[in-house]
Every structure is written in C-alpha cells, then in structure tokens.
Amino acid sequence: MAAISKVGRLNNDSPERYAASFTSFLDATEMSAECYYLFFESTVPDSTLCESGGEVRVLGIGSGSGEADSIITKKLLQRHSSVYNRVVEPSEGLIEKYKTLAREDTSLSAVKFDWRHQTTEEYFLSSREENIKFHLIHAINVLYYVEDPVATLRNMWEQLADGGCMLVTMESEKGDWGKLGLKLWEDFGQGDRLDTSLRMAGDIKRWLDAMGATYVSFENKVDVNATECFQENSEEGMLLLDFITHTPYTSDIPEIRAMALDFIRRHSSLVDDKIIFLSIEETIVAFKKGTEK
User: Is 149 strand, coil or helix?
Assistant: First the structure.
C-alpha cells in the first residue's frame, strides 16, 4: 500500500527522479524543441494588452529556463515597445539558464526582467502587499506541481489586470496520456486527485466556469516514443514510464507497471517499429473583464 500511495507524486516525493525522467521525456518526443515552443506564440492574443505606449506587464509562474517565456515575450514585443517581465522560478539552476538566455538573445533587450527565485507559494505570500497588476500571466505545465492549484489560480487571477489574460497549459483528458492518468487514479488513487500531479486541463476549465470567466483553448498534439518503456532493464524506459505516470519507480510496483504498459500498448500506434503514444497539451487562455473580481 505504501507504494500505491505514491501514485501521481513523482515530483513531490522524488524531485531528483523527476528531473531525470523529464529529460527522458524530452528525448522521447517526436517533435523538435523549437517546434514545441513555437506553439505558444500562437496562443498569445494578437490584441494590444495595455494602452498605447505603455509598458506591458507579464508574470511568469514556474518559468524554468525561459524557452517558452521568450517566445511569448517576443510575440508581445511585436505590438508593445517595452515589456516588464517578472519571472518566478524555484530552481536556481533553471533561473540562471534563463538569465543567460536573456543576456545572449538581443531581441529581448527591450525587456525589463524582475527575477524572483521563489516557489509559487513563496511568491504570492511575499507579493501580497504589492499594488501591481499584470496584463498577462502564464503558467506553462506548472500547475501539476504547486501545493494547491485552486489557491494558485485564485492568486493569479487576483494579480491579473482588468482586460488582461491568463494562460495555463496542462495535459488534456482528450489525449491518451491524460486518459492513462485518470485510469491510474481510478484504479490506484488514494484521497483527492488534485492533491497529486494528476491534474488536467479540465480541472482548470471547471474552475474558470465556476468563476464565470470567458476563455478559449488550443491543443498541441505531441507524439511520444514509448518504445523504451517496454525494454526490460532499460533505465531510459523506466524513467520515461515514471514521467508518463507521474509516479516514482513505477517499474518497482508490478500492478501499476503492468496496467500502464498494457494501456500504452493498446492506445499507441506502431510507426517505423516505434510505439507512439499521444499526448495532447491544452493551453487555456482566460480573459478578465473589467467588472470581474
């Protein structure tokens, strides 16, 4: 039962294992990193987010090493002459990589960066007394890992300026990856699914619906080569399976491993002798009207 209780808790219980498994996932995706990150450019509204000549203010939650953030910022610079970009990231290594990217990319020279080396929870606690609102707030594949996703969404919404937009990317239940996560929880989950990393785009949309917020969504289909998961004693395969299931050391839990591999096998396509498993990431863009609280 102790092993079963780890379902959906890869990042919570084993952050080092999570980092290694994330690298395995990136290696297994059938899409270049450039193509993957360029998708986010299309999700940023084309409209001007603040008054003409004004500085557009951006808040990035869990910005990592900045690849997605920089794409979004460059899109904003097409319509705004200057951008204030507050970056919230708990990993010192990742924030240093982002700083290097910002220094070396001359197209970001008009951006004023405000670096916050904090967890999401630490940031919102420390900024509670600040009188600042942001025109764009984004959290890309981040809300799996915050302590309380509902509180985080509420804090993001409170710091969003009237007329601004909030952009959140999460795994969709429409993809086979998302369906596996829900099936894992149905068979092995204990407690509240939202207390684990098995959170989905639908959870975000239900919160927005309850708020009466207007939003649109965009889907990005990502093929993942899961072949290594089926290779006995493959460290890369074991790490990838951990990432897919959000569960540490899945290969050491026979019932979960068997269920996950059976699900992947039945829901994958065979392409050039590769087992291709479909992930659908959904980016939700919500708009805050002037009358909303």
Answer: helix
Contact 277, 177 (CB under 8 A): yes
Instruction: For residue 58, give Cα distances in angstroms to 78, 132, 193, 253.
Output: 15, 11, 30, 43
pLDDT at 291 over 60: no
The Cα–Cα gap between 85 and 113 comes to 5
pLDDT interval class at 52 (50, 70, 90): low
Residue 59 has pLDDT above 60, yes or no: yes
Helix or strand holding residue 87 (H, E): strand 83-88
Instruction: Give tens-digit pLDDT for 204-240.
Output: 999 999 999 999 999 999 999 999 999 999 999 999 9
Its pTM surpasses 0.85: yes
Q: Are strands 56-61 and 134-140 parallel, antiparallel or unpaired?
A: parallel
Could you give the CA distance from residue 54 to residue 81 in angstroms, rounded to a whole number?
8
Q: Which residue has the tokens 């904090």?
A: 118
Q: Which two tokens stand for residue 94?
A: 């990742």
What backbone phi and psi angles, to 5 degrees, belong to 37? -75, -30
Eight-state DSSP code of residue 76: H
Range name among 43-57, 121-135, 157-171, 241-255 with the lowest pLDDT average: 43-57
Neighbours of 149 (CB within 10 A): 22
Calculated CA dihedral for residues 177, 35, 97, 142, nearest 10 degrees: -30
What tokens does 230 get?
């089926």
The residue whose two tokens read 């450019």 is 41
Residues with Cβ within 8 Å of residue 172, at least 6 apart in sequence: 178, 200, 201, 202, 219, 280, 281, 282
